[in-house]
Design a protein that fits this description.
The complex is a heterodimer of chains A (about 120) and B (about 750). Chain A has one domain: Serine Threonine Protein Phosphatase 5, Tetratricopeptide repeat, CATH 1.25.40.10. Chain A contains six helices and no strands. Chain A is globular and about 40 Å long. Chain A starts with a helix and ends with a helix. Chain B has about 750 residues and is of the alpha+beta class. In chain B, the strands form ten sheets. Chain B has a five-stranded mixed sheet. A five-stranded mixed sheet of chain B has the order 3-4-5-8-9, with helices on one face. A five-stranded antiparallel sheet of chain B has the order 17-16-28-27-26, sandwiched between helices. The interface between A and B is large, with 41 and 52 residues.
Amino acid sequence: MKVVLGVLIILLAACASQPPRDEQTEIKEPAQHSLLIWAEKLEAAGSFQQSASQIERLLRLEPRNARAWYQLARVHFRLAQYKQSRQFSLRSISYANNDRWLLKKNHELITQIDEATRL
Amino acid sequence: MRFLLRYWLVLLGLVGVAIAVAILWLFFYALDLNKTVVEKFEGKRWSIPSRVYARPLELFPGKYLNQESFERELQTVGYQISDDGLTSGTYARQGNRVTLTRRAFKYPDGKEPSLSLTLSFENNRVKMLQDAKTGQNYQLQRIEPLLIANIYPRLKEDRELLRLQDLPPVLVQGLQAMEDRKFQKHHGIDFLGILRAAWANLTAGKVVQGGSTLTQQLVKNFYLDSELTLERKFNEAIMAFLLEIQYSKEEILEAYINEIYMGQEGSRSIHGFGQAAWFYFGKPASELTVGESATLIAIVPGPSLYNPRRFHERVQARRDMVVDVLLEDGLITQVQAVQAKYRPLKVVPRSRLSFTQYPAFIDLVKQQLRRDYKEEDLRSDGLRIFTSFDPNVHYNARRSLERQLAQMYVRNNAPLQAGIVVTRRGTGEVMTVIGDVRPGFAGLNRALSIHRPVGSLLKPAIYLTGVEQENYTLTTLVDDDPIRIPQASGQDWQPKNYDGEVHGNVPMLKALAFSYNLSAVNTGLTLGVENVIQTISALGYKGEIPVYPSVMLGTQEMSPFEVTQIYQTLADDGFYTPLRAVREVVDSNGKLLRRYPINTEQRFPAESVALIKFALNYGLYHGTGRSVGERLQNKVLAGKTGTTDDMRDSWFAGFGNDYVGVVWLGNDDNKVTGLTGATGALRIWGEMMQGIALDSVPDALPDTVKLVGVDLESGQLGDDNCEHFAVLPYKDGTLPDEKADCAGSDSTASTVWEDFMGWFQ
C-alpha cells in the first residue's frame, strides 16, 4: 500500500506534463500574462531595469514560469549581463519541457550570448 | 540752570548712543540667530527613521489564498471592519465575498491610488477580483504592505513627514482655532495674546493659558531647549519674528505639524500629526475623522496630560470642547459635530512598533543592507526598505511552533529553543525568520547566528554526488554494512544506524529515505569525502568543511539559514539562488536607490536533482518522516530529518511547491532534548506547511527523466506482481532493461511510465 502511494504522487506529476508545442503560446493566467506584456513593453522602450523588475514580480507569482525566465534572460542580454542572461536562459529551458518554441528561442539566445562573449 | 540743561543733553546723548548701540547689537545678534534659523529650517530638518515594509499582497484570480488568512492580513495591515468596506482602510465580508478599500501607496515602481475591490474565494483560491464600484474585472491588484519595523534615529524620535495637503483641512484649521487664532495675521508674536494670557493667569492664580503663537511654539521645540529663562524667551521672540519675515505661513505651519510632540511610547517619542495618526488611530492622517482630528488637537497642549490611553474622560471632554470650537467657527456642520461627539473616544491598543515584532527577520534585513549602507544613514535618512517578509507565512510558522512546542513541553517537560527560516521556491526570497520561541523577542537569533551539527541533513548531498559522478539510480544498491575507521586519537570511529541494525545492500532510495548511517558513510567513502564536500559547497554552503568521514553524518555545524540555502538549491532543481530579504530601497522622496535583483546559477542538472527530490518526497511519506507525512497526504512535500548525538538537535529541512522551510529545535546550552528530527522539528514543519502549502500540483519531471515500474529489491523492471513494486524516476541512459523474476510473463514491465498510467486507470 505504501508503495502505491508513492505511485500516486508520481501519477499526479503526469498531469503537469503537456503535449509538445511548436508555436508561441500565450500564458493562460491573466495576471501573469498582463505582467509579461507590460515587461515586454518596458523592454521595447529600453527600460530594461523596470522590465526586469516586472518579470521578477511575475516570478514571485509563479516561480516556474518558463516564459518569464526567458524574458528575464533576454532583458539581461540587453543589459550586457551575459553571465546572468545565460543562467536565466538555462533555467527557462529546465522548465520549458515540451514548449519547443520556447526551447528554440532560448537556444537562439544562448548562441547570441556565446557570440557576444567571444568578442 | 545751564548746568542742568547740559546735564540733560549729555544724558540724552548718552541714552541715544546706548539705544543706537542696543539696536546695532540687536541687529547683529538677530543676524547671528538668523544663521541658526535658516540653516536648520532649510537644511535637513529632522532625522527620519527608515521604514521596513513586508511584501505587498498580490491579488489575482486563481491565486492560492484562503479567505481566513486574507482577512487576517487585512487586519494586520490595520484595516477595520465596516458595513460596506467602501472607505479607505476598511473591509466588509459577505459569505465568501470580501469588499475592501485599499489605501493609496507609493511603491518603488510607482504610486497606486486608493481603490475599492471585491473578491470572492473558492477552494482556497481567489475566484473573482473586481472593482467594487464599477464591477470592472481586474487581472492583478496589490494591497499596500505591512510596516514591519522602523530603524530609529539614536534619539528615537519617530515621525512621518507630511505636506499640509495630506491632512484633513479641519485638522489644520482647527489647530489654529485652538492654539493660535491670529496665526494668519501676526508676525510671530501676538502681544495682545500675551497680555491676555498674563491677565488670565494672574486672576486665576496659576497658568491656565499660554500666550505663545504657533510660530513661537515651533521655535521653542525646533531650536531651543525647554529651559524657562528670560533669555530663552527673548530668543524665542526674535527667532519667531525672523521665521515669519522669511518664510510663508504655510511653510511654518507645515513645519509645526511635523515637529509637534504628540506622545511617548517607552523610549520612542511620537512627533507630528502623521505619526500621531498611526500611533493613536492606526491609520494615515488623511483618513482621520472629524472626531479623531479633534482628539489630536486636544492632545497638542500636553501629550502626557492628555494621553488618551491613560486619561480617557479628560481627553474626551477636551475633544468635545474642540468640536464645539470647530462648530462655532463654521469649520464643521452641526451634524458632523453631533456625530463626532456621539462616538466614544477610541484609540488603537498601544502599538508595539517601538520594537519590531519580527526582530529575527529584521536582523537579516540589516545584514543584507550593511553591505551597501552605513548604520547612520539607515537611522536618519527616512529610507523606505521593501522586503519579502510574508505576514501569512510568519503567522503560520509562529502558530505551529507554539502549538507543537506546547505538546512537546508536556511530553518532555523541558523548555526548548527554535530557529526557523522559510523562503520562496524559485526566487530565493525569505518569507520569514524566527529566532526565538518567544514572539517578538530580540536577542540571540537562532536562525542566523547559532551553528549546530546538522545530522542527516547532508545525506542528500552524498547521493547527489553518486548520481552526478557515477550515474547512481534510486535502485543502485549501496552498502549498509558496519565500518570501522581508525582515528588520530587511536580510538576507532564506528558509526551505527539509528535502529542499531545492519541492512546489507539497500537501494539508494531506501538508504536516503530511511536515513541509514552506514550506507551514508560507506557511500561517501566510496565516492570520496572531498567530492561530497564539493557537492555541499556547490549546493550553496560557503563555510569551510574539514575533510573527515564524519561529515557524512553531519558533524559539520551550520545555522538554519545556511541549511536553507542548501535545500533551496535542491528545491530549485539544481539552480543555486542566493537567499534575499530586501527587494528595493527607496529614498525619502520616492526615488529608487537600489534594487536587489534575483540571481541564479545552475550547479546541478535538473535530472540529477529530480532523483534526490523524489527520494526526499518518499522519505517524508514512507521513510523517517512518515509519522508526520501520513497526515500530509493531500500535499506534495519533500524533506529530510536530522538528529544529532544523544538527541541534542532536532532538524527538519524540506520544501513543497511554494516554500522551502528549515526548522531547528534544541537547547541553548546544548542539553539533550529527547527529540529526533521526526518527533521535534518535523512536527512544527508539517503543521506549518499544512497551513501555507496550498498549491499541490507536483513539479513536472524533466524531459530527460522517465518513470519506470520496478521491483525495488532487485532494481529490475517489475509490475504489480512484485511485492516491492514501485514507480521510480530514472535519468535517460540509466533505465533498467531486465525484467525482475517477480514480474508476470505477460507483464507490462518493459514499459515506461506513459503506458503505465493507462494501466493504473
